[in-house]
Amino acid sequence: MPIYDLGYRAWRGRHASDVGRFWVIASSGVRVVSRNTWVRRVLLAAWLPTFGLAAVIFGYERLLENRSVALTPSEVRSSVFGALSDELQDGDVVREALMNEDLQAGRHQMWSWLLCTFLRAPQAVMATLVIGMIAPPLIARDVRTRAFLIYFSKPIGRVEYVVGKLLIVGAYLVFITTVPALGCYLFGVALSSDLSVLADTWDLPIRIVLASLVFIIPSASVALMFSSLTSESRFAAFAWFAFWGLGFIAWNVTYGVLSQEARRAVYAPPVSQHSPQELQRKVQEAVERGLIDPSEVMEAPLQPPPGVPLTAEQRNTLETRMRDYEELLRRVELLGFDDHDRRQREAQLAHAQRKIAHHPMSLVSMYDTLVRLQRWVFGLEKQWSELLPSMTVTVLITLFAWFVLLRKVAAPLRI
Fold it and tell me: Is residue 404 part of a domain?
C-alpha cells in the first residue's frame, strides 16, 4: 500500500509584489464588467463625439493655414467659429483665441478650449451613465454575498480593496475620456500643415491626463461610497443619479434665470436714449407698414400733458411702457445698436456670465464644480479666488467618501 507525504510543501510559483495586490481585484472586475452588453454599447456611443472634435480641429487648422496675422473682429463674426461662440457659455474664450496677436498662444488657447469642451461633453451624459452602471454593484454585491470573507482572508487590506474597485470604474472612464482626447490631439497634430503645432501644444497631453483624473477620482469615490452604504445595487444607483442629476438641474436652472436677467439688463438701453415722441413716431410707422400688430400698441400716449406732475407710480408705468415700445422696435429691426455699441454690450454680457458661472449656488452641482477645475487645468480659469471654493468642496467630498468607504468596508469584519 503506497504512503503519500502529506507534509508541508513550499510554494514553487512566482510571488507577486505586495504593491500590486489591488491589481487582482481591478483586472478581474474589468473582465466581469466587460461582459455587460449595455456597458459596451455606451462605451461605443461615447466615442461618437470624437469625430466631431477631430473635424473642428481640422477646420481650425485650415483657418490658420497661410495666415500670419490674427483674425479681425469682423472676420471672427463671419467665420463658423464666431457663429459658434455666440451660442456658447464661454464663447468669449473662442473669440479671444481667434483675435490673439500671438498666433502660437492663440492656437494653444483654442486647442485647450476644444479639448476641455470635449472632455466635459461625454462626461455630462456618458460618464454619468457608465458610473451608474458599473459602480453601484461593485461593493453592494460583496456586502450581500459576504465576499469580504474571501477578500480579507487573503493578504489584502481595506485600502487595496477600495483602490482595486476604484480602478475598475476609472479604467472605463479613461476609455471614454482620456483615450479619445489623446487620439484627437494626435489626429490634429498629424493633419497640421507644419510640426510647429507640437511646440505650441506639447503640454496638452499632460493636461488631458490631469483633467481626466480631476473628474474620475472624486466622481468614482462618491459612487463607490453609495455602493458601500447598501446591499442593494439599485439603491446605490438611484443615490448616484439623484446626487449627480439634481445638483446639475438645480444649478443650470439657476444659471439660466440669472443669465436671462443679465441679458435683459445689458441689452435694455436707458429710457433717456430715446424721446417719447421719437418712439411713438417709429411705432406708428411700424404699424402702418404692417410690421407690428396694432393690438400690441397701447392707446395711451407716452408723453403726459405738459405741466401735469406725475406720481412715482405713473412715472414707473411710463418708463415701462417706453421699454416695451423699444423691445417692439428692436424686434422688427427698426431700433438697434451700432457695431461699437454691440461689441461693448457683448463684452458686458460675457463679463456678467463669467461672474454668474462662479455663483456660490454652482457648488451644488458636482459636475459643474469638477468642470471648473478641469478648466483650471487647461489654463482657462486663472483667478484663485473663484477657483478655491470648487477645489475645497471637491477635496472635502472626496475625503468624506473615502472615510465612509474605509469604515463600511471594515464593518462586516467586526460583525
Answer: yes
